[in-house]
Amino acid sequence: MLIKFVIAVIVVLSLGLGGCLEKSETRVDGASTGGDGFAWGLTESIPFPQVPEDNPMSEEKFQLGRHLFYDVRLSGNGTQSCASCHQQSLAFSDGLALAIGSTGEVHPRNSQPLVNIAYNSSLTWANSSLRHLEQQILIPLFGENPVEQGLNDDNIEEVLQILRNDSEYSSLFLAAFPDAQTLFTVEQIVDALSIFVRGLISFNSPYDRFLAGETDAISASAIRGRDLFFSERLECFHCHGGYNFSDSTFDETMAFIEMPFHNTGLFNIDGKGSYPSDNRGLMDVTNNADDMGRFRAVTLRNIEVTAPYMHDGTMASLEEVLEFYSAGGRNVTSGPNSGDGRASPLKSGFVTGFDISDAEKQDVLSFLRSLTDNEFLQNPRFANPWE
Amino acid sequence: MLLKSLVLCFVLMSSRAFSHGVEGAGALKEGLSYAVVADFHLRSASQGPSDSVWSIPGFLMGGEATPMGKGLNIGEGSLSTVYKLGDMFTTARLEQHGNARGVELSNLSLGYFLTDSLYFELGQLTSLAATYQRRSPFQDSHVSIPVVYDVFWGRHYTDRGLRFVWQGASASCGVELWTGDRFPAAQNDEGNGAGDIFCHMGLTHDSWEFLGEAFVFVGDSDRRQDDRYEGGHSHGVQTEDIPQSFFTGTVEVFGVSAQPKYKLNQNYHFGVHAEIQQLQMEGDLLLDTRQTEIESKLQSLWVESFFQFDQTTFSLRYQHLRYKNDLFGNGAEPITEALGIGGVGDPIRRSIALRHSFDKNLQAKLEWQDNSAAFYREEVVLLGISWKYLGHIEAPL
After folding, report:
1. Does residue A375 surpass a pLDDT of 90?
2. Which domain-ending residue is among A181, A201, A221?
3. Residues of A in contact with B293 (CB under 8 A)
4. Backbone angles phi, psi at A42, to 5 degrees
5. Residue ending a domain, choose from A201, A227, A254
6. In this predicted model, what pLDDT tens digit does every residue of A21-70 receive, in sequence order?
7. What is the number of other CB atoms lying within 10 angstroms of the CB of residue A135?
8. Are B75 and B137 in contact (CB under 8 A)?
9. Number of domain units in chain B
10. Structural domain of A318
């Protein structure tokens, strides 16, 4: 009888072993778009962004968009182009506290840098409904409050005719939209501008090279600053983490869109966390009181050259920004917006303040400066084609 | 594999040579029985880096499979009680697992014998499938926990449920139905529970003894999380460094084991333990805003031989894991990287152990381990000591 059991054991274990896997293996079918063949200039560690299916990337549209981006003729009075507020040397910001439109109207917000916009999960400072550049670009072109480039129903046909009269545009439009029955449409202009802005990619800073193994790409001070930046003490990385240094990031590997917005305690006008009535952040879109003062965390890539800072451009330097977060908010002591933002009940839980020495401040600043991608700031591919 | 398990059950159950009873509720004595176990051990190295999440490359882990640290570790501290009165019995178990967890009531159940050989039990229970889950360190030849129980079961499957067990003279079979609230299942909002069937058998013939087992476990997971480091159990790991992934899908585990043992004489025994388990899972894996489909087939082989002379046991143990993971979709690559399931080859652990029992209550163990079941190859020495006390108070209280 024992033999029977031993045979049974041997048979069963042999069957089990016979079904063994040959070797350990993990197979990944990432189904990447491969960037659709567009020259994104990404390294292997960076995923491709998601691109709307109805406006795929192409080099021809990129080049058309580049020409339009730098063309002042694309404005109601022929004085302002996209590049007027988005200058390459400033990481496509403008160096002003608040942007100024073609008619001189002052925008309530600071011009955002156009850096890796393709990865933004939402666009502008605080608008959860703006997902795609094809929607957003209509605002600076046709917006009335405030007027930016000043296009409208009355002047658009005239502006289009000016573009039609330029033979260079004829070939650019034809190359970009070879199957279109009609060229020089507003939709084509918007699509081409979207493609150009989407193609403004910056992932070649000294810190990127450091991560890639170039150990002397950043200073010892910057390395210490990195450790502080990613520490629970300073909390910076919670909102400015990830490969794009923003928690408002979306790429082709993601299935769910997260649109985080944060109240950093800049204002607390009434003791209940209120912001100035013309600039209340996400609440202006949602009308939800909890969204008062909540703004998108911008990427910190090239942050060194995009001063002044914050949505209202009220902080002139990175040192001032660091002081602000160290204090856990801002105490406005006079004027109509006075109030202690540090005590705002709506302030993010990550903005609690921290003690930091002067040496540590310098380290954090060194780290932030290591995110400056000089190649991006000078890349001829993104430069003004009219010069 | 299911077929193979059933084949084993059938072949072994068809034998009429059983003469060795199996452990179970049928062996309970009237009154209150209790057991106290204290088990400690020293490790020469921690189980993986102390500042990051411990995982076996290629595998998704969870449950209570927390790593042991360098130095002194608590293997187990427990007080188990069973009170039997007539056909009713109730069990309770207070337990401290591992280093950082507090004492908790891990088992609490009420049972009833429907017949002399059939009972049911309901409450918070530890599964009878894969018997090592219920095995005390005192019963093991080694200090360390078999790696398959960490990876497949989160150390052990303890859940709220109901079981029916038939106990014959030398075999027992049962069905267990679970809420499915524990790794590798997860109940949450839409989990459909879990269940298993098992058969254990034990027999003797002349100088031979044989223990065998087969089981099948099926579980449903709804957003299963690796919560080993939650609830104050971070073990020094920064919580923001813990990838928060969620698995939703089905998990099936099959297993067979055999333990033949030969007695040369009263004092000298020789035996073998062979165990195969296979886990299959299929579903979706979420990490932050990313998602991927995953199909995994994981296998474990555990082979051990031992030689016992008087109060001392010398044993050699070989454990070998294999995995085949297929991930599909846009999120596949970053999720694979973040969770470390890309793997670096077969995790293998070879170990040698010496156990000496000073008396029926006290034993010491020494183990040497050559371990590739981590991100790096390591050799570890473990020194353990286990103490137990069994007591009984006659009924009625």
Report:
1. yes
2. A201
3. none
4. -90, 150
5. A201
6. 678 889 988 767 777 789 898 888 898 999 999 999 999 999 999 999 99
7. 15
8. yes
9. 1
10. 206-375
